[in-house]
Amino acid sequence: MKKMLAFIVVLSASAGCVLILDQSEQQEPAVITQGAAPVTARSARGGLSAEPLAGFEVDAGGHLKTGQPLRLAFDRLLGQPDIAGAEDVALALALIHQQLPEPASREAEQLLHHYLSYRQAAHARTLDHPTMMLPADKRMAALVMLQNQQSLRSQSLGTEGDQALYGDDDALARLQLAKNQLAAMNGLSLEQKNEQLAQLYTQLPTTAQIRLGSVEQIAITQ
After folding, report:
1. Which tens digits make up the pLDDT trace of 6-62?
2. How far apart are the C-alpha atoms of 2 and 185, rounded to whole Å?
C-alpha cells in the first residue's frame, strides 16, 4: 500500500499545472478571469482609485502576499488580450506603487514584469503551435499538456515566480492527477482509495484546501 501511494505522489509531483486533469481537451491555460473587484482594468483606466484592489495584500512584515488572488488582480489590470497594452501596464504599475508599501510594491512590480513575459510567451506559442500532438491515452495526454504548461511558466516566471502565482493551482492539479490514478486502480477498495486521497489532501497548502473544500467533497465515489 505504501509503495502505491509513493508511486502516486512521484507521478503527480511531476506535473505542475493550472488545469484540472479531467479538462485535458482545453488549450493553453486562460490568463484572464472575470470577477467582481473594487477596481477592474476597465474602470481603473479613468484614473487611479483610492479603493484597495482585491488581491493586493501584504503580510505582517510588509512583504507581498502571493497566490491566485494576486494573479487575478494582475489579469484584471492588464485586460483581456494576451499582449497587454502599454497603457494597461503603466496603470498596473501606478496602482502597485499607490496601493502597496515597500518592499511589497517592489516585489509586485518585479512579479508583474515576469508575468507579462509569461503571457507573451504563451501567446507566441499558441500562434506558432495552434495544435499539439498528444498521446491517445487521455490521462497521459493531460499529463503531457500540463508538463508543457508548467515548463513554459518556469522559463518565463522562474521557479519562485511560478510558485508565487501558480503554487496552489499546481497543488490542486497534482491532487486531481493522483485522484484519477487512484480511481483507476482495480486492486484497491473504495475505502482504501479514499484513505490515500485523504493523505494527499493533508499535504496541500492551507489556501489550496480552502479553495477545494473538505476532503469529503472530493471523495472517490465509485
Report:
1. 434 434 433 333 333 333 333 333 332 333 333 344 444 445 555 677 899 999 999
2. 14
